[in-house]
Write a structure and sequence with these properties.
The complex is a heterodimer of chains A (250) and B (340). Chain A has a six-stranded mixed β-sheet, with helices on both faces. Chain A has a four-stranded antiparallel β-sheet with strand order 2-1-4-5, with helices on one face. Chain A is built from nine helices and ten strands. Chain A folds into two domains: 161 residues, Rossmann fold; 74 residues, no CATH class. Chain A is of the alpha/beta class. Chain B is mainly alpha-helical. Chain B has a domain of 233 residues. In chain B, 71% of the residues lie in helices and 0% in strands. In chain B, helix 8 crosses helix 10 and helix 11 packs parallel to helix 14. The two termini of chain B are 14 Å apart. The chains are: A alpha/beta (250), B mainly alpha (340). Chains A and B meet through helix 2, helix 3 and helix 5 of A and helix 7, helix 8, helix 9 and helix 15 of B.
């Protein structure tokens, strides 16, 4: 599904991603953890195409996408969420999802029939809102939603594109603990065929969700293995205590 | 809140008939003012085209008058240099010429964001104006292009002294353009423009070809501006390079902000209001009419956020709301009626 080899990215003299390899198969549940400034978000930005790598290749479903723009990668089945919400804040929840669905089904270039008259889009939006428990707030402007629901919507927009590969950048960040359960439920209910890469600081969530974990420190892969192997790894605890890794750029 | 129901929904709201009925009644209510009415309608069309580009797609432009000017010169040059006088096909040519230029300029500048786009639109319009001046042998330069003759509309209706024929003709053109624009802004394409305006990064993350969409919107906007310019040339039978100027672009922006951006009816309210005020204030104090306009602009920007149409919409939805700040009214409504 996804193969990244030898990814390297430097901002000036600061090497943020340093020779990272990463491979995700169909249905993968892969977590990316590491201290602040380890280069996790930069890695996601490289995979999604927001940054061009200085070296290395990225293959998506067998094809080299290293030079493709973000939108082109999306059309090849890659979707992402952002660490800080990027939503259409002044629009309603319904309209947010409708824009995403319209992009997916190729209707978004169409000029004539109104969006609300396209039954197939409206039905699909309804299904997504239902799956995410957002029906009650469908007509609310996003800016008025509680933060936890905004995070859910962030995931809903990514899933509206029916991706094969989903990159989740701290989906539960900033969500009060009373509301994280809804995000966990959504993650658990993800289509098992979708390959998922998740960045997360909440270790309960990581160990519950992931089947493979990569620990990133100073832009390099420090350790990789099953949750059990990582839990038993001596160095990882030290990293999280801050003994081994001075924080770099985040 | 362009997405909300009511006046801005995809279905026609009964209140939307009001401005058009009023426009139909104007020549009968104010018989001497059909000529001014034509100028208002031309400005409405031009500001509507700006609303698509700026209000919906969020392209901040100060050079939109360039396309108005290109439309005007297309009609003028066709008549003076090629002897083509038929008005309706003249408007089609004006639209095509302006669209071609709008596409080319859009391709060049819409890869950039924010202030860069603002400066580049301004520069493009200035360059075009200068090009028109240096080609004075064809365009007439700063003296303008004279001797434009236009055949009767549909072969029957001359440009009569009272402007009645041209008023009817302009109203039909503006209405047709409005219906097309209205469909565009409610189409998936139009909604995606709003998405780009609201959050460009998110639209990219959804897989949208953001630059391509913006170029398309800019091309449509330019085409409609070209039609407005074409009408201007047909009615006034005289065009100058001032039509392409910064002042016209800026005035259109003020008219649009007064009425409200991103809602089409902002142009329909803002333009007549501006032109009426200009007329009245100039009679009271010829030197200071722009002071009054400036004052009104400040009041609208500070207290009627989203423009006058947004405030009217808020009042229509909640007759007892009574507040001046549309944002507050929206918030209260949101809290009281979560089921909407």
């Amino acid at each position: 599904m996804l193969e990244a080899q030898g990814l390297r990215k430097a901002f000036g003299s600061l090497v943020v991603t340093d020779g990272v390899d990463l491979a995700l198969d169909q249905g993968a549940r892969h977590a990316l953890i590491g201290p602040n400034g380890a280069g996790k978000t930069t890695l996601v930005n490289l995979l999604a195409g927001a940054f061009a790598p200085d070296a290395g290749t990225i293959r998506l479903r067998g094809r080299d996408v290293t030079r493709l723009a973000p939108a082109q990668r999306v059309r090849r089945g890659m979707a992402r969420t952002f660490q800080i919400n990027r939503l259409f804040e002044q629009l309603s929840v319904f309209d947010n999802v409708a824009l995403a669905v319209a992009e997916r089904c190729g209707a978004a270039r169409s000029l004539w029939r109104s969006l609300s008259a396209r039954t197939e889009i409206v039905v699909r939006v309804g299904e997504l809102l239902d799956a995410f428990g957002l029906c009650d707030v469908a007509d609310e402007p996003v800016v008025q939603l509680p933060y936890g629901l905004q995070r859910l919507l962030e995931i809903a927009l990514a899933l509206a594109g029916e991706p094969r590969l989903l990159l989740l950048d701290e989906p539960a960040a900033g969500v009060p603990s009373a509301e994280t359960q809804r995000i966990l439920d959504v993650l658990d209910a993800l289509d098992p065929r979708i390959a998922v890469l998740i960045i997360e600081h909440d270790m309960d969530l990581v160990f519950r969700f992931a089947r493979e974990i990569t620990v990133l420190v100073d832009g390099r892969v420090y350790a990789r293995g099953t949750p059990e192997e990582i839990a038993a790894h001596e160095g990882v605890n030290a990293v999280y205590l801050g003994a081994a890794a001075p924080a770099a750029h985040g | 809140m362009a997405s909300r129901r009511g006046l801005s929904g995809a279905r026609w709201h009964p209140l939307e008939a009001l401005p058009w009925l009023f426009a139909l009644a104007v020549p009968f209510l104010f018989p001497g003012y059909a000529g001014l009415g034509v100028q208002v309608l031309i400005a409405v069309l031009f500001v509507l085209s700006l609303d698509l580009v700026l209000g919906y797609a969020g392209i901040v432009t100060l050079g939109h008058a360039a396309f108005f000017g290109v439309g005007a010169y297309t009609v003028g040059l066709l008549s003076v240099r090629a002897g083509w006088n038929e008005p309706i096909s003249g408007l089609v040519f004006a639209a095509l010429a302006a669209a071609a230029l709008g596409w080319a300029v859009g391709r060049l500048i819409l890869r950039f964001h924010g202030l860069a786009v603002l400066m580049l639109t301004l520069a493009a319009a200035l360059l075009l104006q200068e090009a028109g001046n240096s080609a004075a042998a064809i365009t007439g330069g700063h003296d303008g292009l004279t001797g434009i003759t236009i055949a009767p509309i549909l072969g029957r209706f001359e440009n009569d002294l009272f402007g009645m024929h041209y008023y009817a003709y302009s109203l039909v053109v503006v209405f047709v353009a409005f219906v097309v624009l209205r469909r565009i802004v409610h189409s998936p394409f139009g909604r995606s423009l709003v998405g780009i305006r609201e959050n460009r990064d998110r639209m990219t993350a959804l897989g949208a070809d953001v630059v391509g969409r913006l170029v398309r919107a800019h091309t449509f906007g330019a085409a409609l501006a070209g039609v407005a310019g074409g009408l201007y040339a047909q009615y006034n039978a005289f065009v100058t390079l001032n039509l392409l100027g910064f002042e016209r672009s800026g005035t259109a922006l003020v008219m649009l902000v007064l009425g409200g951006t991103g809602r089409l009816y902002g142009a329909i309210v803002g333009v007549p209001l501006y032109m009426l005020l200009e007329d009245r204030l100039a009679k009271i104090s010829p030197g200071f009419w722009s002071f009054g306009i400036g004052l009104l602009l400040i009041v609208v920007v500070l207290f009627f956020r989203g423009g006058l149409v947004a405030s009217m919409q808020a009042l229509v939805r909640r007759p007892h709301g009574g507040g001046h700040d549309a944002g507050v009214v929206e918030k209260i409504r949101g809290q009281r009626e979560p089921e909407r």
